[in-house]
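Technical appendix A lists one of the benchmark inputs used to test multi-chain prediction within the project. The record comprises three sequence entries:
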Amino acid sequence: MFIAAMIGILVTMALALCRALLGPTVYDRILSVNMFGTKTVLFIAVLEFLTGRPDFLDLALIYVLINFIGTLAVLKFVRYNDLGAEPEE
Amino acid sequence: MRYIFFCIFSFTLWMLWSGQYALHHPLVLAMGVLSCGFVVYLVSRLDIVDEEGIQIHLARHLFLYIPWLLWAIIKANIDVAKRILSPKLPIAPRIVRVRGTQKTDLCRVIFANSITLTPGTVSLDLDGEDIVVHALTEEAADDVQSGDMDRRATAMER
Amino acid sequence: MIIIDILSWICLILGSILCIIGGLGLLRLPDFYSRLHGGGITDSLGAGLILIGLMFQSGLTMVTVKLAMILIVLFITSPTSTHALGKAALISGLKPVVTDEHID
């Protein structure tokens, strides 16, 4: 049953990758990569039950946070071309 | 005072996640205390602990708000999933403005995040009191403009 | 015990199906702002159902607490990053496609 959930998540990841390759604008690609990251978190969580190693959940938790910060960092870089820029008021 | 609260909170979180090893190894415990202190130092340098602090009375309202929000999310999910699966793709995207009557920042954040969390509506921009919302369908736009969610989010301030 | 198993299987399967629907939406919907909604499906109910299904499997242990933390963090961060994406696209001047044919 975990295998079925895993296949579902993998199919979704493939669809997100298709959109990341096709995407006309850069924001489509960032959206797809963000979604890909969320699916990676679910994938790790399911993998933990499939292999029976509870340590994987810590990795999933860290991945949520890194995914969020990474998306914001890429967005800021696209907007300002500089990660240390002060936001304009 | 706020920083002491924050320190206790982060250390509790750290104990929750890695507590079972730390109780037998003093070195790990010391590392946890050190990392908590470092995080509090970084946060005080960034100066991002806000003035509002933790509002205890909010928890009471969240008990009522979260089940209602979950039910709204489930309904909207089924609706959007049906529209994606139907071959004609019956969507009518539009931009609407919604009035947010919340006073505190926290409740505004809860309101805007609830709009985004419900599929079919995404909050794009904050413009004074208004929130610019992109809605996928006419029904979703009507739903968010009826002000039901806004009333429930405002009710949490008291 | 068998009831909990069946409940968790239902949650896992429904969550996977919703994830695939969201991925299909990401491919099918016409413009960027509509695609945000496709991503929203997989982030809210798809991820939530899969994590709740896993919680049913693990019972009342530390694993459940960690899964619940993942769920809470995901529910706070995913709308925030969606909003940031939409706002960045709006500021950069990407015009949303608006159909007014359904308005009388």
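Chain C touches chain A through 46 residues (CB under 8 Å). Chain C has one domain: 2-91. Comparable benchmark entries are summarised in Table A2.
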